[in-house]
Amino acid sequence: MFGLEAIDLARIQFAFTISFHILFPAITIGLASYLAVLEGLWLKTREDVYRDLYHFWSKIFAVNFGMGVVSGLVMAYQFGTNWSRFSDFAGAVTGPLLTYEVLTAFFLEAGFLGVMLFGWNRVGRNLHFFSTIMVAIGTLISTFWILSSNSWMQTPQGFEIVDGRVIPTDWFAVVFNPSFPYRLAHMSVAAFVATAFFVGSSAAWHLLRGRDTPPVRKMLSMAMWMALLVAPVQAVIGDFHGLNTLEHQPAKIAAIEGHWENVGDEPTPLILFGLPNMKEERTDFAVEIPYLGSLILTHSLDKQVPALKDFKPEDRPNSAIVFWSFRVMVGLGFLMIFTGLWSLWLRKRDALYKSRPFLYLTLWMGPSGLIAILAGWITTEVGRQPWVVYGLMRTKDASSGHSVEQMTITLVLFVVVYFLLFGAGLGYMMRLVRKGPVVNEGDTPKHGGPGQKRTPARPLSAAEEGTEDHDNHDSLTKEH
Q: Which of 47, 118, 216, 334 is 20 to 30 A from 154 (CA-CA)?
């Protein structure tokens, strides 16, 4: 297929499936915590706007959660089907870590998800709120174990190799490997930022269409406060993460910077833009700022950053990819910070909900968090190459050895099925977003859905009510 080898197709297949999958957990993590905040605020203030937003976003959460679970199952199977040699080599570490996720996060979510989605009028308020919090905690615990496993592949420690297999000798060292704390914080905060812009974009869309209601205003306000507070924090976390990567994976940093060689004792410049040329071992059309590379990466004006030519050609990541994926992530990060600051400026002038240029920017920034997450994962995973377990096992030695024909057929099938299945799911979820929150005078609307009185027969039917005309809803008196 296009002159690619089986190993290349296996990598493309894994990259394709994980790119789809990561979108759903990112929004699930953020929405679960957002729902907990909304319900907590409703219990404290009894303001209907928080209850209405809870019911609206819980429907979207239900659909997103379902797609995340389905897409995640595929990832686990691929370790055995396409990467069996990796599983044989490192399964004693990665297997238990993924099992811990099931025993903690999945069990916790399975125990409380049904109560959260369908128990609004069936259990007490405190129990329902507790269930929402448990689901939110479950999503974070899941992030903990997934990032621990992946971070161990980036910075492995706490093991010994016996008969060609990794054997854990210190589980604390395995779990809390050198890159894990930074990557856990970076991914968790990224999920919150992505959700904030997803929610803010939804509100902007409704305001631009003239639907200026209290729930829509509250959506935008809360989203912009989150962006204002968390986006700069993410930049700081990213700086610490970069310093950690420089210490443990210097070749990745050299590839990200497109930095090929140091000249004498001169400090390292920062290459803003350019075209890394792996064949000629240079970055063409480079736009450089002197000293800034050393300042950012070493926090000094005289220290040098390792260069790609310091490593053997077979040990170098593909700079042409990670150079640009990193800049996409950072560029979107600066746009997020700018959007948050602009929202503060407009808020002080009582124009947050009226400025159409700002609303259009917020609308188009809706997918920015998810795109930044994808760019970050591309930087991380491609930057780890040519290793699947850094310094221990090369990617070319980790695959199952399937033929080109087998990998081509399965890749095509994955692409077709994913676009049909998840395309329909995403389209359905966006229909719910476009419908917007329903303003109800009573405690809950009488129609079915999460937290409502008529329990749907199927999980996905929790969202059916969101596609009906919101003007047709009757109201109920409060029952609690």
A: 334
Are 411 and 12 a contacting pair, CB within 8 Å? yes
d(CA 448, CA 457): 10
β-strand 387-389 against 282-289: which pairing, if any? unpaired
Q: Which of 104-113, 251-260, 463-472 has the highest mean pLDDT?
A: 251-260
Whether the pLDDT of residue 454 is over 60: the answer is no
What are 299-318's pLDDT values in tens digits? 888 888 889 999 999 999 99
Tens digit of pLDDT for each residue in 79-91? 888 888 998 999 9
Average pLDDT on 416-429 reads 85
- E strand intervals along 294-398: 387-389, 393-394
Residue pair 220/200 in contact (Cβ under 8 Å)? The answer is yes
CA angle (252 as vertex; 71, 146 as ends), nearest 5: 30
pLDDT band at 407 (very low <50, low <70, confident <90, very high): confident
Tokens for 388, please give them.
């699947």
φ/ψ region of 61 (left if φ > 0, alpha if ψ in -120 to 50, else beta) reads alpha
Whether 439 has a pLDDT exceeding 80, the answer reads no
Do residues 354 and 292 make contact, with C-beta atoms less than 8 angstroms apart?
A: no
DSSP-assigned states of every residue in 270-300? EEEEEEEETTTTEEEEEEEETTHHHHHHHSS
Give CA–CA dist 77/400, Å, rounded.
13
Per the DSSP assignment, residues forming a β-bridge with 273 are 287
Of 427, 464, 426, nearest to 21 by C-alpha is: 426
Whether cis (ω within 30° of 0) applies to the bond prior to 290 is no
Give the CA distances from residue 348 to residues 191, 197, 220, in Å, rounded to whole numbers and listed in that order: 27, 20, 15
